[in-house]
């Protein structure tokens, strides 16, 4: 179901850019997600989304952005995609992300969009405009296999479509890369999968691949994930329970070895394992006469 709400604020700030994605201001135009990935951390109790199958639309988001953005004295990267994908299927008709990008371009702020959708290509022209300041588009890709992708990310566009979109963005001169996270234990934590993702990222023009070898397992997130494991991978839940118990997170099997393989493959292909962040232009120096 789709619910409309009037939000009080839109942008949340941090004291400094986060070390993974370089994000200074977080912007969520939607809450809940139509992609329905079986592992999504946003189902956790701490995010207070009662039914993650519902999508909450912040109908006044663009008005809020127009008010809040000019008040930001520090020009930092606006990140979108942490609580809900900015390119949900719903975005095709609602267009909140497209409108937000227009506002961001007008005020010359940098942007980092995290997504699983090739719908981002619709906004190629405005993203190219923003890229004169800074624009990064990161695609979450946890498997190189479309069939497995349909199981673990049932509502998201196919992995192959994401790679194709990445190639088109890179071809247009935009900074783009892969978020290889999470890596699901017993499902995606094998060298062949990691190497295939990195290799294909290189072929599609990625500049970076950021990886985290494991998955969080928090309260409601764990409960939903285990239910999906029972449905899709019978017997796997019991392996998780034996291996991880009630831990907050589940590390990939052989995580250190996988990380080494990942780094070596990235190095071989010339891919960075940290992404370049927005750097504000230095202040003009006064001219001495």
CATH homologous superfamily caption:
Aldolase class I
Q: Please identify the structural class as seen in this structure.
A: alpha/beta
Number of strands: 12
Largest sheet: 7 strands, mixed
User: Judging by the overall fold, what is the CATH architecture?
Assistant: Alpha-Beta Barrel
The CATH C-level class name: Alpha Beta
Give me the number of helical elements: 10
CATH topology, what is it called? TIM Barrel
- Provide the low-confidence segments as ranges: none
Mean pLDDT over all positions: 94
Record the strand order, biggest sheet: 2-3-6-7-8-9-10
- The tally of domains stands at 1
Q: Give the overall form.
A: globular
User: End-to-end span in angstroms?
Assistant: 67 Å
The fraction of residues assigned to DSSP E strands is 15-25%
Helical coverage, percent range: 25-40%
Structural Rg: 19 Å
What is the H-and-E element order?
A: EEEEEHEHHEHEHHEHEEHHEH
